[in-house]
Amino acid sequence: MQEFEFNSEVGQFTDAPQGLNMHHLMVPASVVKKINGSLPARFVVRLGDFTWHGAVMSMGDGRGCVMVNRQNVKKLGLNIGSKVTLHLTEDNSQYGMPMCDELQEVLRQDAEANERFHGLTPGKQSNIIHYVGKTKNPQLRIDKALFFMENLKALARGKEEVGRIIGAKKD
Q1: Which of 103, 107, 155 shows the shortest CA–CA distance to 130?
Q2: d(CA 147, CA 127)
Q3: Among the four residues 21, 66, 81, 103, which has the most C-beta atoms within 10 Å?
Q4: Are 64 and 37 in contact (CB under 8 A)?
Q5: Radius of gyration of the chain from Cα atoms?
Q6: Residue range 151-159: average pLDDT?
Q7: How far apart are CA 115 and CA 67, in angstroms?
Q8: Cβ atoms of residues 87 and 46 within 8 Å
């Protein structure tokens, strides 16, 4: 299992489309060279006592970066330019994040939903897992899991968009 610890700095992409000026943590070229396989590569990211599932993505110049959302930057008390020590541990989990029990149970009981879910790209699977799992109330997690899987089953194969699965996009 690969593990890396190194000093990094909080940055922000300023040339991204409007509203997508994501914060990131730089990964030096010396670390990127040691990563087995190609980028993006999934890791469990630790910054102090805070841990999340993320990916090292290529910057195109030999360096890499790990995205960190605005809420986590704020929660950690960081600013652009903050110096941090970043710890990466290879993520060998099936989905790149834990799947809540409620979604697991819906997939266990609904063979068609299970088959359709596992036919999605890993990124779409992660999005669905995230949207269901971020809900604090267990009954609402069940309701969301059922709603999302019914939406998924209603979509034509090959036309599965996360926005339509979660009900954010209508025809």
Answers
A1: 103
A2: 15
A3: 103
A4: no
A5: 18
A6: 94
A7: 30
A8: yes
Question: Residue 34: exposed, middle, or buried by beta-carbon count in 10 A (0-12, 13-18, 19+)?
Answer: exposed
Give the tokens for residue 42: 């999934």
CA distances from residue 26 to 3, 43, 163, 169 in whole angstroms, order as listed: 16, 14, 30, 34
Whether the bond between 40 and the residue before it is cis, its omega within 30 degrees of 0, is: yes
> What count of other Cβ atoms lies within 10 Å of the Cβ of residue 147?
15
Q: How far apart are CA 101 and CA 87, in angstroms?
A: 28
pTM of model > 0.85? no
Three-state SS string over 8-67 comes to EEEEECCCCCCCCCCEEEEECHHHHCCCCCCCCEEEEEEECCEEEEEEEEECCCCCEEEE
Structure tokens at 64: 């890499």
SS3 state at 3: strand
